[in-house]
Input
Amino acid sequence: MSENPLLFSGGLPPFDQIEAAHVAGGMRELLAELSSELEALEAAVGPTWEAAIEAPSALGERLGRAWGVVGHLMGVRNSADLRAAYEEVQPEIVAFGLRIAQSPALFGALEELSNSDAFAEMDDTQKRIIASSLRDARLSGVALHGEARERFNAIQAEMAECATKFSNHVLDATKAFALNLEEAADVEGLPESLRQLASQAAKEAGAASSTPEAGPWRITLDAPSMGPFLQYSPRRELREQIYRAFITRASEGEQDNQPLIARILELRREEARMLGFEDFAGMSLSTKMAPDVTTVERMLEDLRGASFDAAVADLADLRELAGKRDAVEKDDLKPWDLGYWSERLREDRYDYSEEALRPYFPFPRVLEGLFSLAERLFGIRIIAGDGEAPLWNPEVRFFRVEDESGDPIAAFYLDAYSRPAEKRGGAWMDECIGRAPGKKPVAYLVCNQAPPVGDQPSLMSFMEITTLFHEFGHGLQHMLTQIERPMASGIRNIEWDAVELPSQFMENWCYERDVLLGLSRHVETGETLPDEMFEKIRAARTFRAGSDMLRQLYFGLTDLALHHDFDPQADRNAFDVQREVAARTTVLPPLPEDRFLCSFGHIFAGGYAAGYYSYKWAEVLSADAFAAFEEAGLDNEAAVQKTGRHFRDTVLGLGGSRPPMEVFSAFRGREPSTDALLRHAGLR
Output
């Protein structure tokens, strides 16, 4: 057996041993083994569940186990050596995946199975797996032959390469910019937590010495640094400088993603047409819960109509406040002013600031409260397992999940803190191990919140708290699945526009009094968040709700337009499309040089192409699901627990074993309504 640690046979990945040097050799050794096994399988395959489904799935599982670890490390421990190794072997991984998907022998056996007497005797989960496997094989080009298949496969390889380059460019461009401040006047108005973070960043960048009080300070494009700076710095010219750097990330020089955007859109359009679709949006929606582009556009337009006037009023409020304070920008509000004046308006209207909340939410306490809520709702226990698993960074935590009787059911890693030098931005959940007979699921939960500074723990903003709850919701669906069949357990085989339901559902609990107070303990005094401050947070839930809604619709409609009725080889380019969508979805137009598409990794380096609308589609589901708890009575503990167990057994438990509308209806007793979403946002 190989001694390459990347080829671990089972259990948790040996992250303390895996290095970039193991990637190319290890993956090629594995590919050789799998290739031989695939040939043997093709020679003997027949129209049975075991041969047509389980055996190919097992090959994919083994490939995914090793390559998934490499992909995970690319996100959390990126390095030049790892990139080079990843890019070297990625085309071979893509090619082997296509070889399985396009196997005539496997596809023939699958088709024969779907038409056999045995199919009629199968359970609903098996039938759904077979149907989705046939669909995915067709979308992988199984029906193409000769030159058409060669061209299709070349497209897949090039798109994978483009996506990797896109993501690396964003990471590099984010790392490359910093606003170095040396004068006290430059950090006037900044909260102590940001000064501490900026001082630490300066030291890490090579400053001989730095203190939060005397500097120097370093502001970066990383969210925990840039976000508070735009909210609190009264220095308009500095806000403009960092804002312009942010919206033009990865749009010039060696990190220029503009050519990649054009190429990715061309390749996707070509791919879709080869498979018989008019455009990539139609191809994407063939695997979604939404039936067609028209239905999605209608939903997004309904939400736009409900939020546009509110967003106009939001902007008028900011202009009025700036005018009252006799600010220079009162008649000329710019995008870099919105965060600053929004925070001033929040302070005026609700008498609290986001920064004032941080001391009440030290990360260890927030975790304790989150785990307590999960135990209360879903009948589980979460136990710290530090020291039980190899880690890729000393800051990472490991936890075990048990049922009420103490039996182990799952586990997860939690990588919470921002590390801009090696870790990509954003937050995500991914699968380490999926549930299968004899296997318990393990998840990766990754966030990018403000790290600890000195002896002080990470102090969380409210947005960072909701982000943690969001990713934990994804993790719950992965870990609490009740489906033993690997191809439908956890989040597998769930339509992409329904997969955000549990994550967005969990965010709602951050606005419930007992939950939020249970997350709080002042880092210095130990006091719980005062009731009056909670009421202000709850009242502020609808603050700028129209603007927030419109921002997401801007992203979603831009994504849809780029993949639906846009020809990347015609006169217009992607940024023309962006500006056209902005004309009806923004009340303060983006700058002419805005290139946010160049860092829009969700659609150009992730799984949300022609699917970014999924956040809003699923938010309708999640808000309606939370309404079930409201109707049961949030102060009725027995009813809350009963509803929570029902949610666990349906939404979290059934995974991809049934269509998402059936799963939702099994929980709610009816199909979803937009009423709860608009009510929560204060737009109805």
User: Anything to note?
Assistant: The longest strand covers residues 408-417. The mean pLDDT is 95. DSSP finds 27 helices and seven strands in the chain.
